[in-house]
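In this supplementary section we document a worked example of the pipeline. Step one takes a protein sequence of length 247 as its only input; no multiple sequence alignment statistics are reported here. Step two produces a three-dimensional model, which step three serialises into structure tokens for compact storage. The input and output of this example are shown verbatim.
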Amino acid sequence: FGPWLGPSSCELIGVWTSRHWGPSALKAMSTSDLRRNLANCCELTVGDLDVISNMCARLSAKESVQRLSSPVDAIAILHLVTLSTKRLPIKLPDISHLLATISFIRRLTTTQALSVLSSLVRIRETRSLELITTITRKEIAALSTYSLNDCIFALRACLILTGASEPYVAELLNALVTLAPTLTPRQLANVCHLLTMLRNSRRHSQVIRTVCAKEVRRLMPALLARTKTLLKQFGVKDARYVIDCFY
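The serialised model returned by step three reads:
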């Protein structure tokens, strides 16, 4: 496997990692070496699957997490482990110790917060309600620093994950009202798709009725106005998202 290298090269690297990165070799590796080697395998999507799985398990283990020089390092490891399990056919290890460490960080930067949400979205994590609620609640104060793509991604994360702060969702919608005149055709289609998901999701229907109804009503005219300026610029799939949103 591996899209960047030919089959023979991938096979050779897989054999090499299997022979040279066995259990005893991995046990002797430092956390930084494990992270670097796993990042390389993940980037190229090459290597022996058992070896990569063992790397993920070792980095996520309680002993390894307790030895981290900073709790913030757990965010980078969570990103790397979830990305590996997304790109490669390996089982997700126990990440509870990583999540617990992250939950004790008093203040995350916006980049760190979105990285955690991205990792949880990647694996469709549904057991970390308290962590998701805490992160999204604290991020309300940082929304003024969000880019347009940050807002779109964060709204998508809130629809996929369980436990997102409802005021956070409302403020994301408010931010999109302000940013609507700058949406590209693809971004507009993505926002429309998310609004359709929000409207049709039984899990989120209560959110619309109780918290976000005003924000959704404000956003729809802004999206419609932007749609009129972007007519004839949509691809087929994007046009379908826009039509579904308004009709």
